[in-house]
């Protein structure tokens, strides 16, 4: 594991190279010197990771500000209705566009009626540095909703970007621990927003506090810490 | 672009939880978040945090010629800076309503309430007085920035010590802190500010020290500045929620108790810090 800074060259080399977040191939340099030396640079500070066969490379870091990337699922808030579609705040520098027809089974006549302030769980379909991001609320392959769409009820927690990536890791302790205590519904957006819902307000607050306490930006509690926190809350 | 107001699920959840007597961070209705005071290497440099809300305050002093209309009084100026660093809700060059409130309230609490004895800042009448400059930087906003900023400002003034001066005739000698122990400012009282949030739904109990979401969704705020001796200095109400006189009196009583508790914390932290600084006088 090595730590890289923006602008540093990464030693990534493979016949079938795939670059993940934080890495960038300088196309100008590779054309001038031929195929032999494709230069890969880091665009953010963090730890450089690669898969076991060295074909996939990425940088892991922590941030609070989200930068959109295609195919990531995010949670947005409707800010404005705009003609056929909606404008959403997804925590990025620019607001995202969501087409009114980008829902499962939506037609010109049958469109979802979203109010300003509604929460949407969607997938980024377009992320280009010169354009506003675009969202879709169906799965790319099956074209079914697959859980995407409006999130009703529940509560929204904000956390750091590292924590929301960790929450999606099946090996991370927090969600299995919470799930073993009581049933809950959760939607993790990679933009640092997590929607939670459970039977009553007390449990939802407990989940929200557990997520905030586990955040490496705040206290970064480990499994035992969270367990005692939840026990304390249960006693109240 | 200003971020949108909280989403519908957040709003509904907050109100329903408050109606059931629950706050989002597990506090009681009249419970503040834990206060932490961190002192820097210099005197008069304090970082105050109220939960995740953090404010940095710093005091420095220099000598100036007093304005002719007030030849016997020192000058205090407050420079508060709320940059987008605190929260993406703030923009540079365009002060929001909250920002204006904080600046004005800081002025009322620290300058106009006569916390600092201005006459004690006079060195040579009409010639030389101390000019205290209080810099307040808001580092992170997670609700109730005002109370945190007021506390940081007051503690910074209490922590600060000015160099000793000697006046012989018309001649002023400033002694370096290494040669003579610096002198604390003479403060009349310790003023603490407490903010209560009220909601437009009157069945919801008012909350002390609102967090970020409570502050965004409140129907009215009352800020009370008072000292531990039950002396009320500033009461400010904003927002449109009508209140009964009995409600106001009730929260004033709560604030009195909180001021006493906070006073103990502040004094003990200041003493701890002062004992940690080995000031050798030879």
Automatic annotation (TrEMBL), chain A:
Q: Which Gene3D superfamilies match?
A: 2.40.50.100, K Homology domain, type 1 (3.30.1370.10), Nucleic acid-binding proteins (2.40.50.140)
Subcellular localization, as worded in the UniProt entry = Cytoplasm; Nucleus, Nucleolus
Cited CDD domains: KH-I_Rrp40, S1_Rrp40
- Matching SUPFAM superfamilies, A to Z? Eukaryotic type KH-domain (KH-domain type I) (SSF54791), Nucleic acid-binding proteins (SSF50249)
Where is it mostly found?
Answer: cytoplasm
- Tell me which residues make up the K Homology domain: 154-201
Record keywords, A-Z:
Cytoplasm, Exosome, Nucleus, RNA-binding, rRNA processing
One protein family per Pfam? RRP40_S1
Q: Where is the Exosome complex exonuclease Rrp40 N-terminal domain?
A: 17-65
Classification via InterPro entries = Exosome_RNA_bind1/RRP40/RRP4, KH_dom_type_1, KH_dom_type_1_sf, NA-bd_OB-fold, RRP40_KH-I, Rrp40_N_euk, Rrp40_S1
The entry assigns this protein to a family as follows: Belongs to the RRP40 family.
Q: Which PANTHER family match?
A: EXOSOME COMPLEX COMPONENT RRP40 (PTHR21321:SF1), PNAS-3 RELATED (PTHR21321)
Instruction: Report the protein name in the record.
Output: Ribosomal RNA-processing protein 40
TrEMBL record, chain B:
- SUPFAM superfamilies attached to this UniProt entry: Ribonuclease PH domain 2-like, Ribosomal protein S5 domain 2-like
What are the residue boundaries of the Exoribonuclease phosphorolytic domain, all occurrences included? Answer: 31-163, 193-257
Q: According to its UniProt record, where is this protein mainly located? A: cytoplasm
Instruction: Provide the protein's localization.
Output: Cytoplasm; Nucleus
Highest taxon of the source?
Eukaryota
* CDD domains xref list: RNase_PH_RRP45
Q: Supply the alphabetized keyword list.
A: Cytoplasm, Nucleus, Ribonucleoprotein, Ribosomal protein, RNA-binding
Q: Which GO terms describe its cellular component?
A: ribosome
> What InterPro entries does its record include?
ExoRNase_PH_dom1 (IPR001247), ExoRNase_PH_dom2 (IPR015847), ExoRNase_PH_dom2_sf (IPR036345), Exosome_comp_Rrp42_subfam (IPR050590), PNPase/RNase_PH_dom_sf (IPR027408), Ribosomal_Su5_D2-typ_SF (IPR020568), Rrp45 (IPR033100)
Q: Which family does it belong to?
A: Belongs to the RNase PH family.
Q: What is this protein called?
A: Ribosomal protein S5 domain 2-type protein
């Amino acid at each position: 594991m090595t730590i890289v800074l923006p602008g540093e060259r990464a030693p990534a080399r493979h016949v079938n190279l795939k670059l993940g977040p934080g890495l960038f191939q300088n196309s100008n340099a590779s054309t001038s010197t031929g195929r032999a030396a494709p230069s890969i640079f880091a665009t953010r500070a963090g730890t450089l990771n690669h898969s076991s066969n060295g074909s996939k490379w990425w940088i892991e870091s922590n941030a609070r500000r989200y930068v959109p990337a295609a195919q990531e699922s995010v949670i947005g808030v409707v800010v404005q209705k705009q003609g056929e579609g909606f404008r959403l705040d997804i925590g990025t520098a620019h607001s995202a566009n969501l087409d009114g027809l980008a829902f499962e089974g939506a037609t010109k006549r049958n469109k979802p009626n979203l109010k300003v302030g509604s929460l949407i769980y969607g997938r980024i379909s377009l992320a280009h540095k010169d354009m506003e991001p675009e969202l879709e609320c169906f799965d790319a392959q099956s074209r079914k909703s697959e859980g995407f769409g409006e999130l009703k009820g529940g509560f929204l927690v904000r956390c750091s970007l590292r924590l929301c990536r960790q929450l999606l890791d099946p090996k991370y302790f927090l969600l299995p621990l919470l799930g073993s205590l009581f049933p809950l519904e959760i939607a993790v957006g990679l933009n640092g927003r997590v929607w939670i819902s459970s039977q009553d307000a007390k449990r939802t607050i407990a989940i929200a506090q557990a997520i905030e306490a586990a955040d490496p930006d705040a206290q970064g509690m480990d499994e035992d810490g969270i367990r005692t926190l939840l026990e304390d809350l249960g006693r109240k | 672009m200003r971020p949108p107001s909280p989403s519908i699920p957040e709003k509904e959840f907050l109100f329903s939880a408050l109606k059931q007597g629950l706050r989002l961070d597990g506090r009681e209705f009249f419970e503040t978040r834990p206060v932490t005071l961190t002192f820097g290497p210099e005197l008069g440099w304090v970082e105050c945090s109220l939960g995740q809300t953090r404010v940095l305050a710093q005091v420095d002093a220099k000598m100036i010629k007093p304005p002719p209309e007030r030849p016997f009084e020192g000058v205090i100026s407050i420079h508060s800076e709320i940059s987008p660093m605190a929260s993406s809700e703030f923009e540079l060059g365009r002060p929001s309503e909250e920002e204006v409130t904080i600046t004005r309230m800081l002025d009322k609490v620290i300058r106009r309430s006569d916390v600092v004895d201005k006459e004690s800042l006079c060195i040579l009448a009409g010639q030389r007085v101390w000019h205290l400059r209080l810099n307040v930087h808001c580092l992170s906003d997670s609700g109730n920035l005002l109370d945190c900023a007021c506390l940081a400002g007051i503690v910074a003034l209490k922590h600060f010590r000015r160099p000793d001066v000697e006046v012989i005739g018309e001649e002023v000698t400033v002694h370096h802190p290494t040669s003579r122990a610096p002198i604390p400012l003479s403060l009349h009282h310790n003023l603490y500010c407490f903010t209560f949030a009220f909601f437009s739904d009157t069945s919801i109990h008012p909350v002390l020290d609102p967090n970020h979401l409570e502050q965004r969704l409140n129907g009215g705020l009352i800020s009370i500045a008072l000292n531990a001796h039950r002396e009320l200095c500033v009461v400010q109400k904003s927002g449109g929620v009508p209140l009964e006189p009995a409600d106001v009196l009730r929260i004033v009583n709560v604030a009195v108790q909180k001021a006493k508790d906070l006073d103990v914390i502040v004094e003990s932290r200041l003493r701890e810090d002062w004992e940690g600084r080995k000031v050798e006088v030879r």
